[in-house]
Amino acid sequence: MSFGSLSANAIRALNKGAKIGDFAHDTGEGGISPYHREHGGDLVWEIGSGYFGCRNPDGSFSPERFEKTAADPQVKMIEIKLSQGAKPGHGGVLPKAKITEEIAEIRGIPMDRDCVSPAGHPAFSTPLELMAFIAQLRKLSGGKPVGFKLCIGHAHEFLAVVKAMLSTGITPTSSSSTARRAARALRLPNISIISACRCARV
In a 10 Å sphere around its CB, with 0-12 CB exposed, 13-18 middle and 19+ buried, how is residue 37 labelled? Predict the structure, then answer.
């Protein structure tokens, strides 16, 4: 969960736990706050369709802002949020009444209007374009792992992503074997839903 949904003290506690336990702390899609950085725990920077912390004033993706933040050594991985179980296929709205000056600064959003996270990513619209976006983020971040998460209800949705992995060579491992195994698994009769996939390497 993001800062704003969670308090500063909650974010501090989670990051301190990550530091002590030597595991990574996912930021949520609300950007990286100062409280994520206080204890120095490893971060997985989650980027949703609002591109908080790496957006232009019009809400589009900003390569320059992304590159600057991704260079932080505390950021160990980038995760693109495509959808989640609570609201697959839907965007989100942060009412302007809840946008504090601090949240506006962290997310890179104005305070005088509702903040809308669109249902889809403006930077891509197809599985092949998703793979290209992953490659772009990996290059801008200096080679850091770039993953994605999604919640789906139909096997063909994931198979389209698998096909894009195979055709571009952008897969979770150094070869296309993982994508092929995923495709085979989806053809088994007891496989109905793939709830998450991470593409950790390009």
Answer: middle
Q: How far is CA 11 from CA 23, 98, 108, 118, in A?
A: 15, 18, 19, 25
DSSP string, 76-121: EEEEEE---TTSTT--EEE-GGG--HHHHHHHT--SSS-EEE-SS-
Domain ranges of the chain: 8-154
Of 42, 41, 44, 65, nearest to 53 by C-alpha is 65
Q: What confidence tens digit (pLDDT) does each residue in 75-92 have?
A: 999 999 987 655 555 567
The helix-helix angle for 155-168 and 127-140 (nearest 10°) equals 50
Burial of 50 (0-12, 13-18, 19+ CB in 10 A): buried
Q: How far apart are CA 21 and CA 101, in angstroms?
A: 32
This prediction has a pTM of: 0.81
Given a cut of 60, is residue 170 above it in pLDDT? yes
Q: To the nearest 5 percent, what fractions of the chain are helix, strand and coil?
A: 35, 15, 50
Count CA atoms closer than 13 A to 80's CA, side-chain side. 27
Q: If we measure between CA atoms, which residue out of 178, 175, 177 comes closest to residue 197?
A: 178
